[in-house]
Queue: 3 jobs
Job 1
Amino acid sequence: MADQIRFELGFLGGGAAAGTTDMTSWKEFETALTGTGEGVVTLPTDTGVLHLRVAQIAWARSTPQLARVGF
């Protein structure tokens, strides 16, 4: 099983999205963000697929999805 990462995204003009994705997909997403800022990127998540216009993303935050034991 691939490592999971929790993310939050903020958009120009307001609004946000959050979810969990695999590390490989997140790295591809980060590459698109640091590139030309053009185009649409696809990010598979735990609840579906996000199709995001790179130029409309204001900020992104990520944290590792840690395994938790307990109640």
Note: DSSP finds one helix and five strands in the chain.
Job 2
Amino acid sequence: MERPTLHLWCAYPDDLLQEEAAQACLRLLDEEERARFEAFKFDEHRREYLATHALARTALSYHHSFPPSACRFKQNDYGKPSIDPECGLRFNLSNSLGLVVCLIANGAEVGVDVESRERSESIAEVGPTVFSPQELAQLEALREEERPERSLQLWTLKEAYIKARGMGLSLPLKEFSFLFGGSAGIRMEMDPGLSDKPERWRFCLLRHAEHCIALMTECAVTPELNVWEARPPSAAPRQLTLPQEPWFPQV
């Protein structure tokens, strides 16, 4: 079976502290996106939004024939964006103040989440409200200093999954689990009521620029991953070489 290829694109909102770079990105946005950009109260949130949407347009145009400014989008009932009209590409976005990412595949659903490592303590604090009983039991079994990192990994994996499903927080977070350990490394379990099966998905955890990134894709075999960096987000990319991390489940 041929391995599918995923493309993970990275950009950095602080690159838009340069006015010329910010204006180049702003020119890519449509009228509605510009209005949303202007509505943000704080400059750091404007840069985060602008970097995210400029990166999406730059990345998608790189894998298709349309120019970045010509790309049009629609959203499903839960807010997940897709290209309009349909062209075969699937993508998902995630953003933080320090790093924004876009994951792209051809014909397979994808989800991605990025979180700063600085958020690990705060995520650990809310763990009991979002993690399953099995996940919480594994957290309790860890040394106290290990729990924030595991909480960060769990949160990004769960976010990537609900985004890949395109249903967001309408999916109950406690009804599926990412369980660590044993020969499987990390395995996914889910309640039958979710109308899904773990074997439908492959997932991976990456570290980059002091962030944790979780990737989720709908495929039967381990995908190939290309990582790109656009600096600023409207620029031509260069390919990054990140440490090879395992995909789960391992087949």
Note: The mean pLDDT is 96.
Job 3
Amino acid sequence: MLKETSSFLALCGVFILALIGVSILRLYPDWLDWPLARALNNLTKVHPRATELAYWAAYPIVEGLISVSLIWYAWFSSPSPESRAKLVIGTAAAVLAGLASHFLRYQLPPAPKPIFDPLLQLHTPSVFGAIDTLRANSFPDSPTFPSERAVLFAGLSLAILMVRRDLGLLSLGCFAVIEFSRVYLGLHYLTDIAGSFLLAGVFVALAQLPWCVEAGRWFLKWERAWPWAFYGCALLASVQLITAFHELRLLLRLVTKS
């Protein structure tokens, strides 16, 4: 147990150091973010079919449906108490990481999404239609580092990885494709997604410590004692996870602005 604890603490330290590095890189966008954003934006002009595929891949609920479906599959295909305790506490850690990202993102200098940044003057991909419509529905002035939804889904993928390596790698692969599609379309910088992944990694790694997994066993007691209540609440939670707590995030934005 001591060896396992040391391993997860070391992994957490690696994630934190890497997150600090990415945060510094984010503060100097001309090093990576701006050149990459311009290069990808040029590709959207000459590869309309790839741009359409990226647009549909980045559809808001696609990532949520994949992640939640794999969580349920992992839950029923790994019935051992240890695996289920790790999965449920890892999922809770992913949600907490997403909440933490909401407050953390306001501690760094704000920057608009690449497609709305007047300094970049990017071409608007035709899949978005009118730029004014996109601006009205995309919160162009909200901070993007880290991304709340990317943190959440990265955390869910890592939680699955802790229980089922094959499913976890599949989930991480989907996460990479979908989030890079958002980078390709100019909705995020690459460091936004990298920082989101690393922040999620910190929380999920901590959640795998023995005393945290022990807390996850409480949910198993609940599941055995009142399965109807447990699975009913799990279903409601799944709906919120699929939408990445969209309504709650809207409320938090309104409260923050006020």
Note: The radius of gyration is 19 Å.
